[in-house]
Design goal:
Blueprint (H helix, E strand, L loop, with lengths): L1 E3 L2 E2 L12 H9 L7 E2 L22 E4 L11 H13 L4 E6 L5 H4 L11 E7 L2 H11 L6 E6 L17 E5 L9 E2 H14 L2 E6 L3 E4 L2 E4 L5 H8 L4
Parallel strand pairs: 1-4, 4-5, 5-6, 6-7, 7-8, 8-10, 9-11
Antiparallel strand pairs: 2-3, 11-12
Length: 235
């Protein structure tokens, strides 16, 4: 696994961004997250060592733009170069998430066709309103590998009708002292929707405030993922 953040910074875009960990971390450091900057890691996928070998070894998964959004309008001038590097490194698999799926067609390269085989796109949703808006677009897009990321999930959602060509649904709660609670019933509902459509399902993390069997629990941020794993409900 490798990380590639060609730029940093983002703008809050919808309800799911309310307690964004990037904004919180930047605020503590006195950094303005709304200032979008190209990073010194821009060429990471194609950088080589003294032996003229790629530093990122073949076959790895590369998590792209996880401190921003690849489809951010502020980065339009830089994205073409990113696609060129992704195309050059056909031996790597790139994954990126976006809340801006409505910009996708305007942001892909001319030779995208039905999609690059080495790219997975994760469409992020947090409530039913965003599920219906974003997934109705996402379901019609030419993408080889599609994931749906329900994180942070802030209400029960019905997405079964959008899962025909989705490979994986990821569910997670919100991480913040003031976080909106995650109800385990919502998680189980999404799991059943995935079973109905034979779609892979992953419960990635609990919420700081987690409701199960009518009781609310407050969970330490360092235990959110481990507690979700203990549920053992991935499909």
């Amino acid at each position: 696994m490798a990380m590639w953040n060609p730029w940093r910074g983002c703008h809050k875009y919808s309800e799911g961004c309310k307690f964004c960990y990037i904004h919180k971390g930047d605020h503590k450091r006195g950094v303005d997250t709304n200032n979008i900057l190209k990073t010194d890691k821009f060429t990471t996928p194609i950088e080589k060592n003294k032996k003229d070998e790629y530093k990122i070894k073949s076959g790895q998964v590369v998590y792209l733009c996880f401190s921003s959004d690849l489809l951010l309008a502020d980065a339009d001038a830089w994205r073409t170069d990113c696609w060129q590097m992704i195309k050059e490194r056909f031996d790597l698999h790139f994954i990126f998430l976006t809340k801006r799926i409505e910009r996708f067609i305007d942001c892909i390269p001319d030779d995208w066709g039905t999609g690059y085989e080495n790219v997975t796109v994760g469409c992020t949703i947090e409530n039913q309103n965003m599920a219906d808006f974003r997934l109705s677009i996402f379901s019609k897009l030419p993408i080889k590998h599609k994931n749906v990321i329900c994180q942070p999930l802030i209400e029960q959602v019905s997405i079964e009708k959008y899962l025909d060509d989705v490979e994986l649904v990821v569910v997670g709660g919100e991480s913040d002292f003031n976080a909106r609670p995650l109800n385990y019933d919502w998680v189980l509902s999404l799991r059943q929707q995935c079973i109905n459509t034979d779609t892979h399902f992953e419960f990635r993390q609990c919420g700081t405030h987690f409701i199960k069997d009518g009781k609310t629990y407050t969970i330490n941020v360092r235990q959110l993922c481990s507690q979700a794993k203990k549920a053992d409900i991935n499909y």
